[in-house]
Amino acid sequence: MGYTEVLGVEDLLSGAAGKSEEQMLNAVDLLSSSIGKSVLVKLKGGRELRGTLRGYDYHLNLVLENAEETRGTRTRQLGTIVVRGDNIVLISPAPE
Fold first, then answer.
1. Cα angle, residue 42 at apex, residues 6 and 4 outer, rounded to 5°
2. Hey, where are the domains in the chain?
3. What DSSP state is assigned to residue 73?
4. What is the pLDDT of residue 8?
5. Which residues does residue 49 pair with via DSSP β-bridges, in sequence order?
6. Which of 2, 18, 44, 53 is the most exposed place for a label (fewest CB within 10 A)?
7. CATH fold of 7-93, please?
8. With 0-12 CB in 10 A as exposed, 13-18 as middle and 19+ as buried, what is 63?
9. 57-61: long-range contacts at Cβ-Cβ below 8 A with a sequence spacing of 24 or more?
């Protein structure tokens, strides 16, 4: 899995659901390598967050620093937040 690909939440949480162990390690490696970097997080309900990934756990709860929420053309600054993993649809390295 390349760094430019999107991490599907199902890929990270389902483990053996049609994925090889190597593919799963690559997905986890990608998330680990994103710590300290800007990520785009899409949530259920169409909300989008962008911020610096500071940490995550096995539930896929994320800690984002300097987070901002985007809805359409509106952007709202949120600061440091915890995103509950159940709400995440995908995580992607943020475009520069």
1. 20
2. 7-93
3. T
4. 52
5. 41, 69
6. 2
7. SH3 type barrels. (2.30.30)
8. middle
9. 57/85, 59/85, 59/86, 60/9, 60/12, 60/13, 60/85, 60/88, 61/85
